[in-house]
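Lab notebook, bench 4. The sequencing result for the construct came back, and we need a structural model before the next group meeting so we can plan mutations. Quick request posted to the team channel:

Model the 3D structure of this chain.
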Amino acid sequence: MSNEVIKEGNFEYIETGGGDVTVLMLHGLFGSMSNFESLLNTFGKTYNIIVPLLPILTAPKEEVGLDGLLSYINAFVEHKKLSNLHVLGNSLGGHIAQIFALASPEKIKSLILTGSSGLFENPMGSSWPRRESYDYVKGKVESTFFDPNMAKKEMVDEVFEIVNDRAKVIRIVLTAKSALRHNLADKLQNITVPTLLVWGKQDDITPYFVAEKFDELLPNSKLVFLDECGHAAMMEKPEEFNAAFGDFMNEVS
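Done. Here's the predicted structure in token form:
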């Protein structure tokens, strides 16, 4: 990825600096800043895209979970003096985007959710990866996508390293359990900003019916399904995702 990672205090992030409109992008549980590479390359000069590295694997145990991640995002937004934000979140990042919108509606202009948790999710399939089995981990990472070839070796290696690090596994499990407890079904009617839902039809982690339920509960939403696409639509179908994102941003900004 060509965008330089900026380090300031406890924060690590990418910022493209393009345009006056700011888009904050939040990655998922096993995700990283590079998940948004196509969006950064396509829209980085049009919008000021900011992608923070969420401290899922590094936060003190007492700060692990959605409450801790929300506090981190609040601190980051204050540090950067951000407002009028368009927030895009994938998977757990979408969950954080929603609770941020609920807690600070005055800072949000729109939401873009893709494969988001918040209603139902099946993290890493029906079970956590067996630590010693590289092939098992490889299969689980491949199941994130419709096309298993999207699961590149460096991606599998990264997840394998995480699940074989006890401290990181504990944080992953605690964060996943926190997300399962934070069901937002009875709160979504309070998110009134324009919201774009971009979903892979073959998403096995947050299946298509989750997207339909979000569309039903959010009062100002638009749902776009991408065929032959799994849980990380912005990676697996970048051109189609970018088209939906670009049209939406033209409408709301």
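Residues 6-252 form a domain with the Rossmann fold fold (CATH 3.40.50.1820).
Will bring this to the meeting.
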